[in-house]
Design a protein that fits this description.
2 copies of one chain form a homodimer. By secondary structure, chain A is of the alpha/beta class. Chain A is built from 13 helices and 17 strands.
Chain lengths: 417, 417
């Protein structure tokens, strides 16, 4: 089964908005075992949307039209679909009432233009709206189908998950199950990681199932994705488990988590297991380490806070760092100890260094010192990161959290917390 | 003149990579006054790339094929272009030598597969490579043209700027200049902003030049983009100036900057003008306020640091916040004063509130108190933000910086710094 996406919006063509919707839909289609050979992006022009839709429908069994369902005059996907299918639009009065109610529930008046969102392509059924005011559409075309969904990501993703993918899977019939798992790593350059995994990729090449792919994701680390295809979910899961074990045997502790286990969630789990609280002292990262830690839900149970000591005087004053060079292992160690003391935490991490654009204390841009204070012992490390100011701050953040992760792993969880 | 982009890469269709290249090219084409009506994304399959190219060439005067110029067997854009144009590929021996030299300069051996990058579509000319090993191609097709450029953004952008856009402009001949300017705003919901600007949009509707577009950008605020078309750059700039003045008259001080003037850069400029240093005390934002401020280059001149007091005890201990409710105007005010004192800064800002998922101190999720301490006077404000944990933290960050901006604007720059 083949499905194409037609992404609608002049702002996409002009580059004012990067099209993340189509990437998201492409990922979901692939995981459902549905082939996607082409994607078309088209502006807010009725004849051109209709033309793109006809070309797509000629090549594929299903087309998802994404965007152009809003209330304003440049939202014309409904009209264009009707034109391409050679049918009319019918205003659905119960749907007009439904939209009016949605506005009333938000204590707002429905603008007359919103009634356009209740126009239904003749022969189509609505996908009820749950997040926005625009309903989606399922338009059968012989044994093919056209879906229309809103372009707002928050509305689109919910509607595709709830209605479009289930409808596609029903049409596809019994089929292979495709599952994937992401191994998340940090501490190894992409090329080294590639060489380490090369043996596994070669071993899998012949039957090409499961497959392995790489993805560099900045502050989120480097991801290794395993995708397995089988006739049942249990079989696909077993394949993922087996390949994960093979990869972990090769990669060791650079794998810090899987799927949505971000570095801060992993660190949070280890701290909670050990009943420890954490304090941070950070300089070049400006608050990024604290901000990442606070993203973990329930952080208030273990995250005390962070002293962002951008100015050296703050390091000397609040953190008891001895006066002298602040881009140094000694300063990082004093900062980690100072964080524990000032914030009243069991463990402390620190990071200080040169984000650029200029050298500092005669150290080149990218030089970073990190330290972890745990169980009365402080350890520090020096790193040299490539890239611009933003890269260096991001790499510093994930690196110091990874250093803490490894220290925590080496310090067993105590029974009494 | 019409130009289309054909983006090549199975990873784009699968959603493993978001296609930022096409957005970048779209932006550049628009600014050059070249229309772009369609974009096609296609996987690494020769017949399908050739088919997409034929469809694009039928609709447009020029096509930019982006990606698929690498050395591996799935890089087949060269073969597909030759197939679509009905010509052969010619291996260019001087280009093979050039690529070999590039490898030698990096002290690496050229793999035999890299010789494929020296294959030229018959009748085409090379665009010399400056950043990677793959040259680009300019393939004339009657009075139309097909360009091929690498998919690596770092290589693509340089080659498009240096060779593709100049060639397109030469073909376009003397043409209109298109310029745009972004007004960046904060403090007004998108619908209210839309209503305020509606009068200007109506006034411009008839001649549709300049035009006005909206863009919601999370922590970056809401953007209003003016685009003007004229026969000279001076004329286009004058149109932008005039429309900017009209919009500013309507919008007032919700406009905090233009183009790349982020909120933190604007605040940085005002602090430097007034010779003031800044300290932050932040709770639910976890370090995001400090992290944004530290993104401004030269921040060390005025940014002292931030006390991330996630735990209430840190508020009471380090910031002298009186024990009691911490989601309150009083706590925010004490935090702003405490930031100045603890960090030794002239001005202080603070933010405390409920990011969720649960209520806190019986206050609903999204309740936020902010304060600014400046010239011995502390002012606070209460806000209620919608959305999830991440939205609330982002909106809190830009809001407290906007509050500081308005206080600074009301406090004149002193002559003695």
């Amino acid at each position: 089964m083949r499905c194409e996406v037609v992404a609608v919006g002049t702002e996409l063509l002009l580059g004012q908005v990067v099209d993340t919707n189509s990437a998201w839909i492409g990922d979901r289609l692939a995981l459902a075992g549905i082939d996607c050979h082409f994607r078309t992006t088209v502006g807010d022009n009725q004849a051109r949307i209709a033309s793109a839709l006809r070309i797509a429908l000629d090549r594929a069994d299903a087309v998802i039209v994404c965007g152009g369902l809003g209330p304003t005059t440049d939202d014309i996907s409904r009209e264009a679909i009707a034109e391409a299918l050679g049918v009319t639009l019918v205003r659905d009065l119960p749907m007009v009432e439904r939209i009016r109610e949605l506005f009333q529930a938000r204590r707002r008046e429905m603008a007359p233009s919103n009634a356009r969102q209740a126009d239904r392509v003749d022969g189509a059924t609505f996908i009820p709206q749950e997040r926005g005011t625009a309903p989606g559409l399922i338009c059968p075309v012989g044994d093919k189908v056209v879906y229309a969904v809103p372009g707002v990501p928050y509305e689109m993703t919910e509607m595709v998950e709830r209605a479009v993918l289930p409808d596609l899977k029903r049409r596809l019939g019994p089929s292979a199950v495709i599952l994937s798992r992401m191994l998340r790593t940090w501490g190894m350059p992409e090329s080294t990681l590639g060489e380490m995994v090369a043996g596994r990729i070669e071993a899998l090449e012949e039957r090409s199932n499961p497959t392995i792919a790489f993805l560099a994701s900045g502050i989120e680390g480097l991801k290794v994705r395993i995708t397995a295809k089988a006739s049942t979910e249990a079989e696909a899961t077993a394949m993922l488990d087996s390949e994960e074990a093979e990869l972990r045997a090769v990669l060791g502790d650079v794998v810090f988590g899987i799927d949505d286990q971000s570095m801060e969630r992993v660190v949070a789990g280890l701290l909670v297991e050990r009943g420890l609280t954490l304090g941070v002292a950070e300089s070049l990262t400006g608050g990024l380490v604290g901000s990442r830690l606070a993203e973990a839900e329930g952080a208030s149970a273990w995250f005390r806070g962070s002293i962002v000591c951008y100015d050296s005087k703050v390091k000397f004053g609040l953190l008891d760092v001895p006066e002298g060079p602040v881009v140094s292992a000694g300063a990082a160690e004093a900062m980690a100890r100072g964080a524990c003391k000032a914030l009243g935490s069991d463990a402390g991490v620190s990071v200080t260094g040169v984000a650029g654009p200029a050298r500092q204390e005669d150290q080149p841009v990218g030089t970073v010192f990190m330290a972890v204070a745990l169980n009365g012992k402080v350890e520090s490390a020096e790193a040299h990161f490539p890239g611009n100011r933003q890269h260096i701050r991001q790499f510093s953040t994930i690196s110091v959290l990874d250093m803490l992760r490894k220290r925590l792993l080496a310090s067993p969880a105590s029974a009494d917390g």
